[in-house]
Amino acid sequence: MNTMPRLDAVDPQRASAEDYAALTQVLERYGRAYYVDDAPLVPDSEYDRLYHLLEDIERCHPEWVTPSSPTQRVGGTAAQAFTPVTHRVPLMSIGDIFSGEELEAFSARMLEQLGSEALEYCAEPKLDGLAVSIIYENGILTRAATRGDGKVGEDVTANVRTIKAVPLKLRGNFPQLLDVRGEVYMPRDGFAAWNERARASGGKVFVNPRNAAAGSLRQLNPQITAQRPLTFNAYYIGWAEGAELPGTQYDRLQYLKSLGIPVNPLVKVVKGLQGLQEYYAAMQQQRPTLNYDIDGVVLKVNSIRAQERLGFTAKVPRWAVAYKFPPEEMLTKLLAVDFQVGRTGAVTPVARLQPVYVGGATVSNATLHNEDEIRRLDIRIGDQVIVRRAGDVIPQIAGVAVDRRDGTEQPVVFPTVCPECGSAIERVAGEAAARCTGGLICPAQLRQSILHFVSRDAMDIEGFGDRIVEELVGARKIHSPADLYTLSKDDLAVLMLDPGTPERRARFVGAVTAAKLIRNIENSRQVPLNRFIYALGIREVGQAMALNLAQHYASLNDLMAAAPGELMQLPDVGECVAQHIADFFKEPHNREVIRRLLAKPEEDLFGAGIELISVAAEYASAEKPLEGSTYVLTGTLSSLKRHEAKALLQQLGAAVAGSVSKKTTAVVAGEAAGSKLAKAQELNIPILSEDDLLKLLAQYDLAPKT
Ligand code: 5U1
Q1: Buried-most residue among 89, 144, 254, 371 (CB within 10 A)?
Q2: CB hemisphere CA count around 501 (13 angstroms)
Q3: Which fold, 96-324?
Q4: Any ligand 1 atom below 6 A from CB of 179
Q5: How far apart are the C-alpha atoms of 339 and 436, rounded to whole Å?
Q6: How much is the pLDDT for 458?
Q7: Same fold across 439-524 and 527-616
Q8: Residue 126 is a catalytic residue
Q9: What CA–CA distance (Å, rounded) separates 272 from 278?
């Protein structure tokens, strides 16, 4: 079964000819899968690692190297289905570097050979797409070709013509003949939307935007390519006739822009080693906020005269390097799959991984979402899996390196009973999630319900984190959210007196903390109806739905008495959510918890004494001056909480969305705003500061009092 040699263990100096041949074959297979089939078997980082191992072996044994070695060609071979195109000037690849030391060596090399001319560089983001050459004759696009092996590529003219970012006709002072090189790529939002649709319709789901771009460009039917959200950035002039070109790389890019050809806006001229280092750091920081994947920066000597003096090696220019970021995808071993039970009983499989450094953090867990995802990935315990982590995004398993299997891998068995309470696990037809049927007798569901109840957008009771809630549920001090309100300092003191093992000691609650917790609980007793409804954790009732319900019903009793048919008369209430709401309030246990939450302590020993503030009257009478507009909130606001800002905007009739699109009226950006702010800038959507928002609210007497 296992055709792989122990490649992890190969020492280049001791490698046998057999190891070398096997490694060559593996790289050829991976290369074909990547370049020709657009279906990579391993992450790029793994390919790079094996490629560098092959280079090391070849340095020790030059006598083994043949012209067909993967190191002896620039890219992949041209596919048969497209007409081959011989590039007039080869499409070069570019030398990679991975460390600060290699950058210093590059800068020192340039300084040594060019003196002061080497001080100025054109620094560019390295887009993770597909390199193409596009030819314009007398300003008209006449041919586009992929890189192929650098000398011969594939004619993809019909497909490239469908990319709206690529002009079919140049404007301005264009040369008679222009061969422009650049990257075709798929923006992240387009990629996400494409995959979402593909998942829903059972179509082809792409592994990453690069693959999506490559797969789309290599469609034989240009009508299919036209439907894919591809775009293009130029980065080099390969050849030009009949025009005097500017003397620097940066000015040439600006010249291309003047012809109507898109160039990346983050391109910049920087000075010296420090400038190169700062640019790399800035791009690394910006990387998660961009709407496209970049895998490093390209650093080019800016002066074309200096570039010409340095020339090329057999494979790459001497005047440029690609300084790559740490990989966002890595291979690691799947050690086990655990099953976590959430607030509504949904059972989520979680992959336990051999810790691996990826996307700037060590990852040892990744969600597997649900049973269907396990089937889709055909993942097995013991597999080498591709872990992907980009920016702050939760790590995902992007795929399995199937060819690494040796037959010892074990299938993942989805449990039929809850791992926490032993109740049956059920899967409702048409739903992706499997659910534990234990309700609040299940400690996992109880813990999650309590955490939801105390959370910021619900009852906002500070200080009840995972650990304390786990202790209280484990010690049977809490059986429902109502029990929070009858907790005494003594209940918390039990935890103080019994710290137990060193692990439990970390959960020790001090006297001051205990007093603070009790105070926080007391302070939560007065709450707007919408937040209380949200806190109950009814399935599919998020903050917006809770507000919708609270605006309509003057009291909780009215809502509790509503039948599904009545609920469905409200805006945005569908059959499913109406049924969930009615089911929730019909359940005797839930009715009892609500009764206790609202009972006055002086009348009921176990009453929590929560007072609900009706919002219906206030909302019903208010004018809706922002009706029809959509706002997006991002970053941290200092004078009011995000949910408060949201509720106030909604009160004025605005919709508040979670993501930025062309339909967004404005984005309110607080401290440390990230990708939503970047997207707004890209789409030219007005951006409001916190101050602007307060001024807007103040116009309607809604600004919070300070
Ligand atoms: N941004 C950028 N990417 N990229 C890739 N510039 C750039 N230049 C390249 C390549 C292969 O090659 C030139 C140095 C010829």
Answers
A1: 144
A2: 1
A3: D-amino Acid Aminotransferase; Chain A, domain 1 (3.30.470)
A4: no
A5: 11
A6: 92
A7: yes
A8: yes
A9: 10
- Active-site residue (options: 126, 300, 646, 679): 126
628 CB neighbour count, 10 Å cutoff: 9
What average pLDDT does this structure show over 633-645? 80
What is the CA(316)–ligand 1 centre distance, in A? Answer: 10
Q: How far is the CA of 91 from the centre of ligand 1 (A)?
A: 9
Max CA distance (Å), the chain? 94
Amino acid at 267: V
CATH number for the segment(s) 439-524: 1.10.150.20
Convert 282-315 into a string of H (helix), E (strand) and C (coil).
Answer: HHHHHHHHCCCCEEEEEEEECEHHHHHHHCECCC
Domain residue limits, the chain: 4-73, 96-324, 329-426, 439-524, 527-616, 623-699
pLDDT (mean) for 290-294? 91
* pLDDT-based confidence at residue 649 (cuts at 50, 70, 90): confident
- C-alpha neighbours within 13 Å on the C-beta side of residue 545: 21
Q: Which long-range contacts (CB under 8 A, 24 or more apart) does 84-87 make?
A: 84/148, 84/152, 84/153, 84/154, 84/155, 85/143, 85/145, 85/148, 85/152, 85/153, 85/154, 85/155, 86/151, 86/152, 87/133, 87/145, 87/150, 87/151, 87/152, 87/153, 87/238
Cβ of residue 324 lying under 6 Å from some atom of ligand 1: no
